[in-house]
Amino acid sequence: MDSRYHTYRRHVLQARAAFIHGAFLDQIADHLLQAGRELAFLLAEIPPGVLREKQEEMLIDRVKDPSLQDALELLALSSTLTNSYSLSRREDEEVKQRRWQRAAWLLEQMDVYLEELAGAMNEQCTGPEAVPFKGSASSVQQGSGQRDV
User: Fold this and answer.
1) Lowest mean pLDDT among 5-9, 66-70, 74-78
2) Which end of the chain offers a freer environment for a tag, N or C, measured as fewer CB atoms within 10 Å?
3) Are 55 and 133 spatial neighbours (Cβ–Cβ below 8 Å)?
4) Which residues contact 11 (CB under 8 A, 6 or more apart)?
5) Which residue stretches belong to region Disordered (predicted)?
6) Among the CATH numbers 3.40.50, 1.20.120, 3.30.160, 1.10.8, which is that of 2-124?
7) Domain boundaries defined on the chain
């Protein structure tokens, strides 16, 4: 479970860094999609009692939220479509803008889940050998040097 959490956290942090530094949107999408997969595995692996029942229900409901799933699928699909087909210049710019907005929203959601998981898991960690789980504690800011493929 610790390994999944840290892998999830790493992908969220890498997506945020890529977003802020104006990396190619496909790189950001890849990290967000991997974070989404890790989050699903992580929630499936959390043993009973680690999270309070209400916290677990809340996280699972949020992850199963159709808008999050749709956004992940659309981000993956739009990456494939814009790389495979040539669009008119105007359509291309509109598609890119929607993809950046979707990526920003997804990154914010992943940050929220990261903070909530860290907080919930830290409540369960006690004793001198307990290593606290870290959240993200930073907001997403869209850089001006955005690139896209």
Assistant:
1) 74-78
2) C
3) no
4) 31, 32, 34, 35, 38
5) 127-149
6) 1.20.120
7) 2-124
